[in-house]
Amino acid sequence: MLSEVVLCSSTTDSIINVLDFRTGTLYTSFKQNNCFKHALALIPYPGQCDRIGLIISAQADKSLLHIYSFQKDQVHLKFICPEKIVALVVSNRGAFCAGGTDNGKIYIWEISTGILCKVFDGHYKKINVLKFTSDDSALISGSEDAGVNVWLLTSLLDDSVDETPSPYYTWSEHSLPITDIWCGIGNFNTTRVLTSSLDHTCKLWDLATGYLLTTFIFPTVITCIIVDPAERMFFGGGNDNLIYQVYLYRKQENRGYSATNSNEEIIAVGGTGSIEDVCEISSSKDNRKGNVFKGHSSSITTLALSYDATLLLSGSQDGTLMIWDITSKQMIKNFSHYKGPITNLFTFIKPPDLVSSINNLSNKIPIQPIQLFQRNTKQHSEQKINVEYVNIILNDNTKVKVIFGLI
After folding, report:
1. Which residues have CB under 8 Å from 193's CB, separation 6+?
2. Which end of the chain is more exposed for a tag (fewer CB within 10 A), N or C?
3. Strand pairing report for 212-217 and 274-277
4. CA 63 from chain center: how many Å?
């Protein structure tokens, strides 16, 4: 039977825990891990986004990447990096891994071969978060310099260009360091991007045009964000111990003629660069506009949603993990396996490797292969990156290639 599990880590406890989603029962723990927020990622099987094979984390105190398999609690592999990685992300199809550093550099490796495809200066200051778009056509980076850059992956992997790559978009409307980034579902022409910052705002962007759609103002710093798969609402975890729920659509009275019996229609919130005050939204009589989850005793550090988006998971600074029913706003479960802040939180379908390890049948399922990550790009010209491309046309009639997957 398919079931969901929760994977979480902390900066103070050197373990990664895998828990049962509903009960909080501990399945297994991975030792020797100490990573920052946004420095842990899941590696899916190539072409199988819903099947997780490996875990990769960048160590906070060393220039190392640790690879974990679900079949043992020790480190499976260790990769030495050219410098310490503080932000890490894996593409949705499991083809590439990107890492950011304290000095603003970005590294990109091909997972199947270990080739270091590109090293470039992405920002002036520390990289806080990296995200791939859902079609893996672009990499989005957020930094302590308050900037958000959108990089086309094809331009980063172009061997014929030796110059430092230029971002496709540079969003500089935030005034303080970026705390989190979320990318919507869809291809480059239909995706929206949500960013959060220490400046008490979340900004919604149209990736096709690069335009700022809406700015949401909060009464506190928003440290983490998550959006439901249908993009009807998003949740922001604040430093004031609250989780803010903001609806992206609202009801509006329809004063004109309508063939239906209802006098209300659903319209999108914001747009055209407008500003929405979340305090006013949450205090409105229309409960569809937003709400607040109360229960944590310390600031929120990370958020995740269940597979069907009916339950919300939240981790806090004091190591508490809570499960909420989104409809009723009630807390269902409260448990803790850490003494310090929860920094990374993921939910996914229980891997078959995890079931095998519990039943001592690990030898029946081979561990997903992975190649040693290279430390320099000198071998790059001698090896070919195994990718396949499809052409898409952007809104400005510019034709670009989009990475589709492994050959």
Report:
1. 140, 150, 181, 182, 183, 184, 204, 205, 207
2. N
3. parallel
4. 22
Give start and end residues of each alpha helix (H) in 264-395. Answer: 278-282, 352-358
185, 235, 309, 232: CA torsion to nearest 10: -60
Tokens of 406: 């492994």
CB atoms closer than 10 angstroms to residue 396: 8
> Where is 154: in which H helix or E strand?
helix 153-156
CA 350 to chain centre: 19
| Closest to 337 (Cα-Cα) out of 56, 27, 36, 2 | 27
Q: What is the pLDDT of residue 331?
A: 93
Question: What is the tens place of the pLDDT at every residue in 301-346?
Answer: 999 999 889 999 999 999 999 999 999 999 999 988 888 899 999 9
The pTM score is: 0.87
Q: If you search the block for the tokens 């050219």, which residue do you land on?
A: 82
Parallel, antiparallel or unpaired: strands 399-406 and 387-393: antiparallel
* Burial class of 161 by CB neighbour count within 10 A (0 to 12, 13 to 18, 19+): exposed
User: Is 128 within 8 Å of 38 (Cβ atoms)?
Assistant: yes
Query: CB within 8 A of 288, min separation 6: which ones?
Result: 247, 249, 250, 251
pLDDT confidence bin for 255, thresholds 50/70/90? low
Q: Which helix (H) or strand (E) holds 8?
A: strand 4-10
* CATH 2.130.10.10 is right for the domain spanning 4-406: yes
Radius of gyration of the chain (CA): 21
Give residue for tokens 């409960």: 287
Report d(CA 208, CA 365) in Å as an integer. 42
State the DSSP string of 95-138.
Answer: SEEEEEETTSEEEEEETTT--EEEEEE--SS-EEEEEE-TTSSE
Task: Kindly list the domain boundaries of the chain, sorted by start residue.
Answer: 4-406
**pLDDT reported for residue 392:** 47
* CB neighbours of residue 185 within 10 Å: 14
